[in-house]
User: Fold this.
Amino acid sequence: MMLEEIFAQPQSIRKTIEHNVKGDLIFPGALAPIETTLFGFTKIIIAASGSSRHAGLAGEIMLEDLAGMAVDVEYASEYCYRSTHAGTDPIVVVITQSGETADTIAAQREALNRGAKTIAISNVAESTIVREASAALHTCAGPEKAVPATKSFTAQLTMLYLLALFLARKRGRMTSEVIRTRLNSLAEIPEAIEKSLAAWNEQTESCARSHKDDKGFLFLGRGVHYAIAREGALKLKEISQEHAEGLPSGELRHGSNALVDENLTVVVLATRDNTDPDSMLRYQKTVAVIEYIKSRGGRAIAIVTGEDRAVSALADQVISVPAAPELITPLLEVVPLQLFAYHFGVVNGCDVDRPRNLVKAVVSE
Assistant:
């Protein structure tokens, strides 16, 4: 099931776009219940758990960079116990695949009790969280039967990017022409994934066999890619029960470098957008991190953009994704990480569809 759902992601992303974009209009009518609030709020709080929170971390960068919003990302399980005296007037975005996650429902109820408006992002249109929300946005990933989130995660990333574009236009930070260009770039992602899936599947299976006996992993990413590093680590933990941790690339040398030796594998997100100076600066710093890892005897698997000679000369294995704008590259780079976790679980004899101790939706605290 999990492998099928990984391969279904181009279609789920495509359907999510088609459902939420009509011509040049994003979310036509969907946010009408909070229309007046959209002109006056000063902050967004995202509350979610697990993979949905990692989508929220990527969404934070998208919303800040494109819409100029102040964004905080909370663990849904912590939201009720903090920020009770916040002086701003936020919109609270709650994200949950099932729409029945107990901690996220509780966070939304607390937000509503505090007088905030909420936007629920869910894959189930008739779920509890949708019924109780001020407004709702529907991802169209279809039923996700495997416990580890895959297609629901990329659908959430798609939705958050659309939300960032919607608010950027609403706040006058982008023209209609710029929005149209960005929507066209997003619409190209499903086909780019489809064309790459076979190669990624073969490469990640080979990678998993090479690292079959590894007992610890670090996943590194900068900026929006940090969220994907976190998600890659979570997928590996969920499926294989081996320890993995996601870190911002620049934080490696602030303590975690004590772990780097010949027994540690580091998975590095080293993608880049050649048209974005900030992306290129992050990329250059990431190459330096790989050099550091190798100088200390560590092993590196790198996700790169296109033909990357600099990283290929350093890393032990390299997996390439197509070029894309910086903020939608996560939709591409997360798929090889999902496949690596899947194949690593398979070669180690794990039940990849129903890992031990896990349930699809945590419906009790």
The chain has a mean pLDDT of 93. The first strand starts at residue 21 and ends at 22. Residues 2-187 form a domain with the Rossmann fold fold (CATH 3.40.50.10490).
